[in-house]
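Why this split exists: single-chain examples teach little about how molecules sit against one another. For that reason, every record in the complexes split bundles all components of an assembly together and asks for one structure covering all of them. Below is a record exactly as it appears in the raw files.
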Amino acid sequence: MPTFYFHLKYADRLSSDEEGSNLPDLGAARKEALLSARELLASAIRTGDPSVPDSIIVTDDKGNVVDTLRLAAVLPPSLRALIGPA
Amino acid sequence: MKPHPNFLLHAIEAAGIKELQPHLTVKDLHQGEAVADTGELVKSVYFPHSAVLSCVVGLADGGAVAGGLIGRDGAFGAVQALDSMVSLNRVFVMVPGRASAIEAHHLARAAEKAPALRRIMLTYEQYFLSQVQQTAACNALHEIPMRTSRWLLRMEQLAGATFPLTQEALALMMGVRRTTVSEVAARMQEQGLISYHRGRMKLVDVEGMRKLACECHHVLENHHDLIFRQLMSEIDVSPSRLVSWKAGTGGSEIEH
């Protein structure tokens, strides 16, 4: 199974993923990014933590970016509409 | 004399119970190895010295969460062995290391001859149940950074300040995604609490970790002290043996 890396991009820095996850394909990696984004955002909202990454950047084992997911994109559509276009 | 690295075997020795000794063997347990699976009869009982075992509750959608950790202060399978019971969870080796092992039927026979042995096993089972109850409350009500800190302190208690641990295993233990663990660990590293690199975890500032953790780790330390002190007074073992075990084992002497 290929390895995908899920790096966290903040406004001022990048927290890189050294370990990676073995997943069947890009579709599974996209789903993992989506579920991770929901969990990170939910935890940040519950704790009132202002330091939340603004996106998850997924790379393959050669370092190519294969997906980028903005955390704001996982908000319910009615809330996303209130904060403006992604 | 140095106390036995496993607390229950230390208590068994202190109580003068000699029936187990001829049947115990020391084994090296490897990371990821399963020592029991759901629905299987428990054939061997493990008393970890430096290994840490995790009891995992798997769910239908593939999710899983640890109910409890078993390390040098306990045993896996002892109560099941007393009455030929099956394991209701998958139990796997989270941190590799040594353990004393005994076949279940030898333990059951020894417990028939030595009632104090049965008492020690049942007391540990009560502690393990309290660990699972505390974990249920903690998982429902405490936030992820506090829970991460609490589990890492428990690992430090069982495995020493430096131990092999993948983010995936920590995520499985907590029932969260690996990316969440990665985010929390990166922040702890920035704060100088831990050092984590390529699968090796080091707790740099244990006091700082205690401040960050929820009360659950401390509560369970107190439970362990309370019920084993009571047990020791009942089986005519000085409670000072509990103190001497804590002082004489653990820390940097634990190797993996």
